[in-house]
Amino acid sequence: MGITRKLESEELSERKAFDDTKAGVKGLVDAGITKIPPLFHHPLDQSVQASNLGNTNHVVPVIDLAGVDKGPGKRQEIVERVREASETWGFFQVVNHGIPLHVLDEIIDGVRKFHEQDLEVKKELYTRDQMKPIVYNSNFDLYSSSTALNWRDTFMYCIAPNPPKPEDLPQVCRDILLEYGKHIMKLGILLFELLSEALGLNPNHLKDMGCTEGLIPLGHYYPACPEPDLTLGTSKHSDNNFLTILLQDHIGGLQALYDNTWINIPPVPGALIVNMGDLMQLITNDKFKSLEHRVLANLEGPRISVASFFCTGLKATPKLYGPIKELLSEDNPPKYRETTVAEYCAYFNAKGLDGTSALTHFRI
Questions:
Q1: Element (H, E) at 287
Q2: How many CA atoms lie within 13 A of 238 on its CB side?
Q3: Residue 339's beta-bridge partner residues?
Q4: How far is CA 316 from the centre of its chain?
Q5: Whole-angstrom distance, CA of residue 322 vs CA of residue 363
Q6: What residues form the membrane-spanning segments (predicted)?
Q7: Which pLDDT score is estimated for 1?
Q8: C-alpha to C-alpha distance for 115 and 285, rounded to whole angstroms
Q9: Kind of pairing between the strands at 303-310 and 232-237
């Protein structure tokens, strides 16, 4: 596509050798490395350390969803908080979201069990074919990104539009993957209602547009890193979807780029992080922000997180998405051209996590 620098043949063969192990970053750690391979060396970012500086204005909002269905007054209060957080941050945490704590604990445990199961079993699922029922690999953009690799392994599976057959999911975490997917879909529908209302639209507007049509959870595994200052768990990016609901364990490392400053998003027990994706910014014509974020590598580990993407991904669907007509006016003309989700995701994936926004490509 000509949108990233061409990888040198030597680097390409090193990446292929890493890929061929099918053991991911965890395989490097299991082999006892004390120095991380140059493939993972990121240029030193001048602002690698978070700059919270005790500034209480720079704390991601925490929104309590308790009582959201207990009458219009309370709901309106929550909608207002969601609107404010989505416009200013594009990130917020939710508590009292209705998902039992034991389910959150079990999905973290399930993701850990998947990544720590016998390598020969795991290798069977290692693939770069995104249409498989479960896709396990390290660095989805291994062959397309011009930047250093990330210190992270991932598996993803699709809950909607085509629910997986239970037998297609790994036995070690099958039941919890299915259960968690059901809970996240229910919470997602509520969040899209609140976001619709925050835009001044009918509660079902975003759902009727197809924003809840696709749901793809990703189980991330960030092994302890012997040289965390040289690499990143996930490099700077914004998400290629409508909405992400993220569960992170207790270790931390997630940062959001707010006001040109990296802000820590510390784990809040029992909370889930919600962030707008690029497609949400596109359809709201920049009203809601898709904030760039990253994950630091860590001496402690493994760090486990589950990012649930509301998006149909690369699955072909003819539906076109552009700025919502009801939000446009003479003073607020469309800033983006229409695109399909598959076209957006294909462009994003080909570009890789190179630190630039894919949204720029779709601006009018």
A1: none
A2: 27
A3: 321
A4: 21
A5: 10
A6: none
A7: 34
A8: 39
A9: unpaired
Q: Look-up: residue for tokens 């660095």?
A: 139
Those residues with Cβ within 8 angstroms of residue 28's Cβ, 6 or more apart along the chain or in another chain: 36, 37, 223
Q: Which of helix, strand or coil describes residue 156?
A: strand
Per-residue tokens: 57? 């204005």
The rounded Cα 228 to chain-centroid distance in angstroms is 21
| 3-state SS, residue 294 | strand
H or E segment at 238? Answer: none
Containing H/E element for 26?
helix 24-30
Instruction: Count the residues in the chain.
Output: 364
DSSP conformation class of 285: T
Task: Classify strands 91-95 and 62-64 as parallel, antiparallel or unpaired.
Answer: parallel
Query: What pLDDT was estimated at residue 46?
Result: 45
DSSP state of 135: E
Taking the C-alpha atoms of residue 229 and residue 57, their distance in angstroms, rounded to an integer, is 27
Q: Encoding tokens for residue 83? A: 């609107």
Look up residue 85 and give its DSSP letter: H
Distance CA 277, CA 258 (A): 15
Residue 239 sits at the vertex; the CA angle it makes with 234 and 241, to the nearest 5 degrees, is 145
Name which of 134, 206, 141, 149 is nearest 347 in CA terms.
Answer: 141
**pLDDT at residue 153, as a whole number:** 98
Tokens found for residue 7: 């990888």
Domains and CATH numbers, the chain: 9-43+53-362 (2.60.120.330)
Closest CA to 247 of 308, 176, 160: 308
For 19-147, list the strands marked E by DSSP: 62-64, 91-95, 134-137
Provide the CA 84 distance to its chain's centre, in angstroms: 21
pTM score over 0.85: yes
